[in-house]
Each structure stands twice: as C-alpha cells, then as structure tokens.
Amino acid sequence: MNAFPWLTTIGVVPLIGSIIVMLLPAARTTLAKQIALLISLVTLGLTIAMALQFNANSTEPFQFVESTSWIPALGISYSVGVDGIGLVLVALATTLVPVVILAGWNDVENAAGKGSVKGYFALLLVLETLMVGVFAATDLFLFYVFFEAMLVPIYFLIGRYGGAQRSYAAVKFLIYSLVGGLFMLASLIGVYVVSARILGEGTFDFLSLVGLEMDSTTQRMLFLGFFFAFAIKAPLWPFHTWLPDAAKESTPATAVLLIGVLDKVGTFGMIRYLLPIFPEASQFYAPVVIAMAVIGILYGAFVALGQNDMKRLFAYSSMSHFGFIALGIFVFTSQGGTGSVFYMLAHGLSTAALFLTGGFLMMRRGGSSLISDYGGVAKIAPVLGGFLLFAAMSSLALPGLASFVGEFLVLLGAFSRYIWVGVIATLGIVFTAAYVLRFYQRTATGPAPAAMVDMPDARGREITSLAPIVLLTLVLGIVPGPVLDVINPAVERTLEIVGVSDPPPTVDIGEGSQP
Amino acid sequence: MNPENYIILSGVLFTIGAIGVLVRRNAIVVFMSVELMLNAANLAFVAFARINGNLDGQVVAFFVMVVAAAEVVVGLAIIVTVFRSRRSASIDEPNLLKY
Amino acid sequence: MIGNGAIIAADVAPILEPSSAATGIFAWIWLLIALPLAGAIVLLTTGRWTNRFGHLIGVATVVIAAGLAIAMLIEMMGRSAEARSFEQTLYSWVFAGQFQVDVAFQLDQLSMVFVLLITIVGSLIHIYSIGYMAHDPDRRRFFGFLNLFVAAMLLLVLADNYLLLYVGWEGVGLASFLLIGFWQYKPSAAAAAKKAFVINRVGDVGLSLAIMLMFVTFGSVTFESVFSSAGGASDSTLTWIGLLLLLAAAGKSAQFPLQAWLLDAMEGPTPVSALIHAATMVTAGVYLIVRSNAIYDKTVFAATTVVVIGVITMIIGAVIGSAKDDIKKALAGSTMSQIGYMVLAAGLGPVGYVFAIFHLLTHGVFKANLFLSAGSVMHGMNNGVDMRRFGALRAVMMITFGAFMFGYLAIIGIPPFSGFYSKDKIILAAFEQNTIVGISAVLAAGITGFYMTRMFTMTFLGKARWDDDAHPHESPPVMTIPLIVLAIGSLGLGASLYYWGDIVEWLAPVTGYESRPIAIPTTVLEAITLVIVLIGVAIAVLMYGKSVPIEPPQKVSVLTIAARNNLYDDATNDIVAVRPTWYAARFLVWFDNRIVDGAVNASAAFVGGASGRLRRLQNGFTRSYALVMVIGVIVVFGVLALVGLS
Q: In which band, very low, low, confident or very high, does the pLDDT at A179 lie, cut at 50, 70 and 90?
C-alpha cells in the first residue's frame, strides 16, 4: 500500500543521529545538542507526515506495513505496522523526544564520574529508535527484542547521569525489568511451541497468533508470563517499587521518557497482545487485574499524599494513573479501551509537564527535590508558577484538558461494566485533587524560603519546551475528535476479538416512554 | 592374555594418580600424578581398541598424548614461575585466587 | 396584596419539544463564551506589557457579552413560549462506542436568565474591580481569572448536555480556586483555595457518577434525551441520579454537609466574593437541580432530600451569619442561608422551581450589592473586616451606606424591595408543600432580619470604633456607580421581574409550574412573615443599637460559640475525612517503603546473602577443588549404577 517505509525510516533516523552525535568530539557539547534536537525534530516531522496519511476508516488491521524475513528457521520476521493505538503512541514518543532534549539542554555537564554530554543525547536518540520499534513491531519476537533492548539506554541514562543514588536505582530498575522480561521470554517460547503445534509451523507473527485456538489452561499459563512483564513495566500495584527510585534518581528528561513513554509499553502490551492473543485468559484474569488497578489508583494517590519528595510524588501519581489505564483495558468496554489509549497519550503529556516544570524548579534550587525546600513560586516566578499550576491541573484531569477525556472514558467504561468498580475508582479523583493541590500549595504558594527569593522566572528555552505540551494538552482536551477517530476502530477490533460487547443502556432512548 | 586385566590395571593406575593429586602437596608430584591419570586413561583407550577391534581408541590415545605434552609445557611453566616468586612448590600456598 | 393576583392560573408542564436550531442572532451563542475566554487568554498569556490596559480588555469582553445577551433576550421575548429554546451544535467532542457527546449549546428561558445575571452582574463587578484592585500589582492577572470565570460559568449554563456542563462546572471551580488564592503568598488564602477545590471535588464525584449512571441508563447524557426518557427508568435509578446530582449541587453551592469551604473562601478579594461566592457560581447547584427537574419530578425521595438539605443549610447559614464579626464571613453565612432557600424551593418540585430561580436572580443582585458595599467599606477602612471596629460609617460614605441599606432591605424582605417578592414566594410554596418546611423558612427569615440588622447597625450606625490609623472615605466613582446600579436592582428587580417580566410564565415552559391551595390566606402569611422579620430586626437593634464592645464578649451562649466556630464543620470534616486520610496516607507510605519495597529488597538481600555464603566454597585450595571433582565423579557414577547404566 505504502511504498515508502515510513516506520523504518522514523526508527532509523534517530539511530543515525545518535551515531553522528557519538562521533563528535566530546568538547563540542553545544553542537551535539543541536544535532540531537535537529534529528529529533526531523523524526517528529516524519511522524506527522505519516500520521497525516493514516486512514482511520481502513479495514486493514495495520497500516504502513513492512515485512522482511529475519530468522526464517524460527518464523521470525522484521515486520512493522501501526494501528490507531500504535500510531498514537509512536506519535507520543516522537513528540516528547524533542521536547525533553530542549528541556534537558543543561541537565548534564561533562563531569568526572558521570557520562559525557554527547553520550546523554545519543542515548536519548537510541531510546527513541527503540520506542518507535516497540510500538511499531507486529512480530512478537521483534517486540520482545525492542522491549528488552530499551533497558540498555535507560539503564545508562539513569546509572550514568542520575542523582546520588543512581546506581542503586538503575540496578533495581534493570533487575525488576529483567525478571519480568524473563517470564515474558518463557511465555514467548511457549506461544511459539503452541503455534507450532496448532498451525503446523511455529510463528511469532502477531496476526497469525490472533485467534489461535489454545486450550484455556495453556492460555492462562502463557498469559501470566506476559502479564507479569507488562505489570512490572506499567507498573501496576504491587510491582511498582522500582518506579519511585528510578524517577527520583533520573534527570527530568529521562523520567519523562521513562514514565511518559516507556512505561506505556506495559499497558500497550496489555491491549495489543494480551487481549487478542489470550482472549479467554484475559477474561479469566480480568477481576484480578481490575482489583490490582483499583488498588493502584487509590494506593498511589494515598502514598503520593504522604510524600515529601517531588519526584517520588510524581512517580506515585503516575502509578495511580496507570491504575486507571489498566482498569480501562480490562473492563472490556469501548469507552474503557478508548479511554485507556487516550489516557496513555494524555498521561504522557501531563507527566512531561509535571517532570519538566519540576525539573526547572529543582535546577534553580540546586537540584533539591524536597517539597519543603520550596514555596511561593507563583509570586516569585509567575510564569513558572503558571506552568506548575497547569501541570497540576492536567494531572488531576481537569475537564477541558486531555487527561479528563481519558479518565472520564475509563471511569465510564468501568462503571458501565461493574458499577462498584466505577464508583470506587471515581473516589480516586478526590484524593488525586488532594495530593496535587497539596503539592501545589506547598511549592507555589505561601512565603518563599530565603534561598528562592532571587530565583529567575522561566526562560525562553524552558517556555519553548513546555509550550507544545501545554498546547497539545489543551487542544486534545477541547478537540479530541481526530485522535478518538484513530483509536476507536483499533479498540473496537480488539474487543471484537475478545468477543465482548458494551452493555446496552437499560432504557432505550427511542422508546423512552412518558409515565 | 585377558584384555580385562589391562582395564583393571588402568583403573588401579588412575586411582593411584587421583589419590596422589589429592594427598600430595608438592606441585611436581601432583603433576606427575596427573600424568599418571592421563596415561591410565590412555591404557584404557588402547585396551578398549583392542577389545573392540578398531583403531578409534588408539587414535584418541595419541590425541591425549599430544594434549598431555602441551599441558606439561604450560603447567611446568606455571610451576616454575610460581616457584621463582615464592621459593616453594607447594600447591596449598598460592591460594589467593578465591571468593 | 402584592404577589397574589399575578400568579398565572393554569399549571404548566415542562415542554420537552426538541429545541430549534440556532439561527439569526442565536447563531452567536458560542460568542458569549468565546469573548470572555479570549479575554482570559490574552490577559493570562501576554505578560507585563498588557498591565496598563489589561483590565479594560477584561471589562470590554464581558460588557460586549452582556450586550449580546440583552439583544438575545429581546429577540427571545418576541417569540412564542414554545419557540424560545435554541440549540447550537459545534462539533463532536468525546465519542467511544455508544457514548457520543457534542460540544453543543442550548439557550432557553432558564439559561437566558442565567446568562443575563452572569454577564450583567459580571460587568458591574468587573467595572467595580478596576477601582478595587487599582493598587494591586497583579490586577491584569485578576481580570484574566475573572474573565475565565465568566466564560466557564456561561459554559455551565449554556451546555446542552451534562458532560459539557461538567467542564463549565470544573472551570468555575478552577477560577474560584485561583481567585480565592489570588493572594497566594498568604498561607491562609492558599489553604482556603485548596479546601474549596477539594470539597468541590467531593461534589464532582457526585456529578461524575450521575453522568455515568445516566449513560448506563439512557445511553446518552444530553438534557433532551435524558429528560424525555426519564420516565422509563426505574425509581431507584432516578433516585440515585437525583441524590448524586444533589451531592454535586451541595459541593458547588456550599450546602450541608459540604458547606465548610464557603466561609474560608472569603480570603479572596471582595469582588470575587461578590461575583463567584454570592451571585453566580455558588448558585450553580440550584441551576443543576432546576435544570434536572424532569428527574426530581419523578423521585419523591431525592426531592425530599433536596428540601431537607436546603432547610438545614438555610438554618445553619443564618445561625453562623449571626455570630460572625467579620463582615464578609457574616455575608457568606447569609449566602449559604439564602441558597438554602433556593435549594429548598427547588426540592419542592413544580411549585418551587420558578421561585428558586426567581430568588436566585434577585439574590444575585442584592447580595452582589451587599458584598460590593462591604468591599467599599473595606476599601475605606484599610481592608479591615472586623465589624466591631467599624460603626458610624454612614456619615463618611453616604453612597456605600445607601447601597448597603437597599441591599439590606432587600434581603430581609421588606416590600417593595426585591427580596420580598422572591423570598415570600418560596415561603408560600413551602407552606403549600409542608407546614414544617414553611415554618422553618419563616424562622430563617426572622434570623435573617436579625443578622442583617446586626451587620447594618454595627457597620454604619452607632459610635465610631475605628482603629487609630483608619481614615474612612468614600470610594471612587468607578466603584460607586456599579453600587448604585445594583442598589437600584435591589429595589426594583423583584417587582419588575414579577409583574412586568412575568418570571413565572417565562420559566414555566422549562421548569413546569403548578400552584396548590394552602390553608392560610396568602396575605396573612405575608403579614406573619413580615412581623417575624421585624421581631428579628428589633432584637438586633436592642442588642447592637446602643454600644458594641470592640473585643467580642467571651461570656456568650453555647450556640454563639458554636456559631463562631462555624458550627464545628471544620472539626467534623477533620475527624470524618481529613485525619483518616492522613493516617491512611502515612500508613501506606510506611507500608510501601517497608513492606512492599521491603519485600523486594529482602528478596534481593536473600540472593545476595546466599551467594555470599556459597562463594565461601571457593576457598582457593586447588586440592579441595580436585576433591570436589572426584566426589562429583563418584556420585555421578554411583547414581548411574543405581538407576542402571544401559
């Protein structure tokens, strides 16, 4: 259909960029940054060009498909393609990379004991390649390769450029993820063996695996392996404890990509792979996952309320939001599914707003992330305070912003399937407001500590990096239509495979009778 | 002559070699014990070749000899080097390579 | 007597016909919202260079919107009652599966009166703020927030479905948060803002759940389809929807048990208190209930609960208002109480809807008048709010005094001031429904007479008890002219709406209307009410007419102490909600660090410890390695021998 290999191009451009950046002399830091920014903008441009050609009404499951045999002996191929869900997440990744490069311009310096500046930006670009790959892969094995390969740049981004406890956090993250990946590998092999038994020839091709008639015991076993990996990656309660440490020790840019995009691979995996490949098992485990999600929503909110560290607070807040996303996926309603995917996008933006604004603040305060070190930002630096407020509102899903659309659809989907789940999850919005506003109150209002009085307001570069996030959050909140158009068919198709339909309204509008 | 006797002899030699490796401290003696074990194995190979009436065992015995010769070269070099630095050929003394 | 003959004879059922498409001037409905929104965007994003004239932009957008609204009113009045509802669909907003929500506006008689109230009172308060905020370095930002509020409030009343209403609902909440905390460097203001937002969120849970329940029940959340098919839903569903909407209304309108934020909200600048926390936003709950009349008409339980909540709030607001020495907090208590009246009326069903809105309109004007007068007093008194340090201000600020007096007479319901018409109608309607409710309403009217007279006397009459550095003076014309306009409204709005405006006939097609006969003749009831109000006035004059101690007396009744503490609402919230939340948060932080992460770290430590032990086997003695090998070989051979080598 499309002769031009869009997805491969979008994936390869940052990789080439990272090689160019690495080849530069270590002292030419500004040049490295400029090239990295340029490359990421080119990638973004390519993504936009691709997205414009995406046909929302297509009946094909995937578009921009490319497929080349890779390891034919094992039925492994390099095949990529995107549906609405993948497209949205690829776009999220390629949007956030230039933003974080710009925002993280001065995050790192060439210093003893830490990595080089050019290395930092090269790693960000490598990460972009892998993020595009993981969302675009339509071969299960290829997905797995990207899934695991992503750990490498993130490990170095945390371990070489992070805060004081960076090694601890990096190793914790790595081991957690590897354990999850190991279970996934086991299940992956299991899927291959099962497919070989059923189809006669083993395959990792996603479309061939969909609708594979596995018996329910096998499904349930294999489901668990994948789910474990995704639940750690997302992260769902109680597999979340690597997140606060990793978030606290990362630079803001790393944290944005880690939580905003990388963690979405977990929830993306659930809706893309778990539901269609293991429909029966998904329904079987749905109550467990929903329970984990709902606990996560409230638990994350409560723990966030008790935090005295900004970055840990943001991390727990994300954990709470991931609860919403997982909830939407596993209630099997079109509102829930669409809401989840939309929320993945919106959460990427709101996380970026929170971490970047927080990062700008911390940079001005010598890197301290203790909330009690701050106060009165809105008075001293009104622009920065305004961004902080916007980030806070975006995080508590104020109606009119993108996160509201996602959150409300998820809650609606949950409510229409299991009323009480919807009710309990909805209570989460009160506690979300409580911790977000408490954070805002303690940082932005009241008297400012003496050390902050001369704090400069947001600069041009900082405003430029945050402005697209703010604009996108607003636009997607006010006119979510184009994105919903893209997501809806993909979600509908997934739910069709699972074999569930939305509960109908109890009163039919057409026959609404007057007493 | 019964070929089984060769096998028994081989076993006896191997056991002597093994005990020698375990109980002696002098590196040279340990080394000789190792050679003894190797040659016990060779004897077994040759005996089996005879029993089975083919040449495979004899060929392998040659291989073992070549490997043993190579091993002697490397091993003796190590022993000599250690002896030079420590003035001792005891194999219990160089125990730094641990944990 | 007045207000008897004008009641239209026939009962009116609400018209559920689909609205006509918006054409002509009504094609500009979106502009009503877009104008103040554009003002807000300009003011909030342009930075310092609009400081000098930013407030003018803010005023202009709202004034133009008001002009547009008046033009629409005139056009609407020229049409027949069935043709007064217009709908404008802009685009499809949120959709997934069967859930389809458009950005669409509905302008009918009910939203029309709200639009007028918001834009006209909003314009006056904008103008007043030019003077009030003249010396504030952040005046531009203030006007930006005010514009944002007006836009959100208009969205709230113009939305044609509940989800879009929710956007306006939270938008006004955000504006309220920003404006309460406008002086955010004051910790008390920041805390009050947070409190308002969080308590409102509790109400929002109600609204969210109501919307979800509507979708699950009706498959749609537009007013039109929900109301037209409400009859098909089960009683319990309707009751739940009604109660959830009531929860939402209680949050936004500071009704019991979510009333605690309103008094603290007085931390905001006074024009904010007038516009948001008296005239418009806090009445949004009443709008929600009246708008959802099709639901409440079918569920007696929910409607009765509405009445009960209204009565409770009406009383506690009045009691709190009677004990406060802070002029703004006293007025805030009064606002609670008056909204209690409206909620009560809204709960009465078709006999009350119209009068709830009627009172809402007159209250919007006279309470804005009272607040702005209070602001004018504060302006002249170095921002002091303690009425014990006012007194005898009549002489130095004649215009303010006059305006406040008009508002005062209006709120206690002295004919022919506007409060008389609207409040008496509610009392009448209450008697029509239930005598106990009626008596409570009369009683509350008496307390209103008491606390308003107390306020009036302490502020303007008696002896001067000013602080030494106070130099009271009249406010500039930019502040007094809006006061005069509002004072005229306080005087004439009630009668003119009732007689000329035919408010009953105007609203009935939307809300429905019916009147029921009552045992007591209307005239007698009005007379009794008036007497009780005058008794309240007399008590207040006796208590506060002669002298007022500068320090509040400590030997007072238990009720007064309780009222000074807002009837312990904060303490209650603290015990019921805040503390448990805190304990839960603390516990979970501990649990997460020690137990969940502890388990993770423990498994890591176990692996680490075990490997530490195991590596001891690597002792460096060559011969022990050899021994292990030999043992291993023997074991392998032994096992092979046991299982049988074949």
A: very high
Q: Work out the average pLDDT over C50-67.
A: 90
C630 and B18 within 8 Å at the Cβ level: the answer is yes
Span C600-642, pLDDT tens digits:
889 889 998 999 888 888 888 888 888 888 899 999 989 988 8
Q: Flag whether residue A399 sits within 8 Å of chain C, measured between CB atoms.
A: yes
In a domain, B94, yes or no: no
Q: C381 to each of A176, A421, A497, C329, C388, how far by Cα in Å? A: 64, 54, 72, 17, 12
> Domain locations in chain A?
278-502
The 3-state DSSP class for residue A486 equals: helix
Taking CB atoms and an 8 Å limit, are C619 and B98 in contact across chains? Answer: yes
Inside any domain, residue B96: no
Q: Read out DSSP for A272-330?
A: IIIHHHSHHHHHHHHHHHHHHHHHHHHHHHHHHHT--BHHHHHHHHHHHHHHHHHHHHH
Q: Are C474 and C398 in contact (CB under 8 A)?
A: yes
- What DSSP designation does C166 have? H
Which of C617, C619, C621, C622 is best to mutate for the B interface (most B CBs within 10 A)?
C622
Average pLDDT over residues C353-376: 92
Q: Please, where are the H alpha helices in A365-480? A: 377-380, 382-395, 402-417, 419-444, 460-478
Distance of CA A265 to the CA centre of its chain: 6
Cα C622–chain centre separation: 84
B95 within some domain: no
R_g (Cα) of chain C, nearest Å: 31
- Residues in chain C with CB shorter than 8 Å from the CB of B22 are 623, 626-627, 630
Q: Do chains B and A touch (3 or more CB pairs under 8 A)?
A: no
Only one residue has tokens 């060929």, namely B59
Judge whether B16 lies within some domain.
Answer: yes
Average pLDDT, chain C: 88
- Report in angstroms the alpha-carbon separations of A27 from A30, A153, A513: 9, 22, 77
Q: Which two tokens stand for residue C492?
A: 């004439």
Pairing type for strands C20-21 and C86-96 reads parallel
Asked if C364 contacts C121 with a C-beta cutoff of 8 angstroms, the reply is yes
- The answer to whether C23 contacts chain B (CB < 8 Å) is no
Residue written as token pair 């080394």: B31
Contact call for C618 and B96, based on CB within 8 A: no
- pTM for the model stands at 0.90
- CA pair distance A364, A367, nearest whole angstrom: 7
Model confidence band, residue A458 (pLDDT cutoffs 50, 70, 90): confident
Residue C77, C-beta contacts closer than 8 angstroms, at least 6 positions apart: none
- Determine contact, residues A251/A161, Cβ cutoff 8 Å: yes
C414 touching chain A per CB within 8 A: no
Q: Which residues contact A218 (CB under 8 A, 6 or more apart)?
A: A190, A194
The H helix count followed by the E strand count for chain C is 26, 3
Which one, of A296, A278, A175, lies nearest residue A226 by Cα?
A278
Closest CA to A70 of A133, A160, A26, A128: A133
Q: Sheet holding C86-96: strands in order across?
A: C20-21, C86-96, C99-107
